From TrEMBL:
UniProt keyword terms in alphabetical order: NADP, Oxidoreductase
TM segment ranges: none
Tagged with keyword Oxidoreductase: yes
Domain NADP-dependent oxidoreductase: 7-245
Name assigned to this protein: NADP-dependent oxidoreductase domain-containing protein
Taxonomic placement: Eukaryota, Viridiplantae, Streptophyta, Embryophyta, Tracheophyta
Species this chain originates from: Juglans regia
Amino acid sequence: CEITSFQALKQFPREKIQLATKFGIVGMKSSDVIVNGTPEYVRSCCEGSLKRLGVEYIDLYYQHRIDTSVPIEDTMGELKKLVEEGKIKYIGLSEASTDTIKRAHAVYPITAVQMEWSLWTREIEDEIIPLCRELGIGIVPYSPLGRGFFGGKAVIESVPANSFLNSNPRFQGENFHQNKNFYSRVEKLAEKHGCTPAQLALAWINHQGDDVVPIPGTTKIKNLNDNIGCLRVELKGEDLKEISDAIPINEVAGDRITDNFIRCSWKFANTPPKHSSVA
């Protein structure tokens, strides 16, 4: 991905681009996600990214997942050094717990926290979102279309055989059959607002605040243009409530991700105290 980005970056003045990349996930071992947040790994990943991207600095550098064996102060200490050296401008976290966000922010200001947030994934609204706002941290929702669910293709057609969604609990068997009802509800509301279900889902997240910047992924120009069209959708307070109420969270069937990724999500992302040693 970074090598591909290098080819695109060469076409534009560097100062016109806001570049974000991340480190932390090393790979998979058995069914576990391997995460590394040691200072040495932080630096080696950053320097590797700079080389692959062909740039002198990264605007926003995320810790992709939290290494729960390393005090967050150690990870942040190295990131702070990289800021001071001019190799990165801003620091971000992804899938971090409230405790980890607070402790990280005390070492060096966190600019953005990337979390899954969509119409059918809203758990972070209870504690994570209020904390980010209290600390002045931007919120970057990933999978704002519910891992493509509100794009509709998987619902109207089917999940492609080679898609990673086949392992997602919400897209499996009876869960998927039950969840399709939510798409129908959003589809009707989208007609009311003169947009597509995907545009309505993105407009809903955009209207959550000026500090919210969703990052819907796409591989097609048409879908990119359609996503941008969500900016034309105007929603009032009562509209937002009606859309939220169309998908009661306690009725969503299945976890948002598989067990191995749940284990490295924000719910399990506290790190050891700085003064303790991990056996």
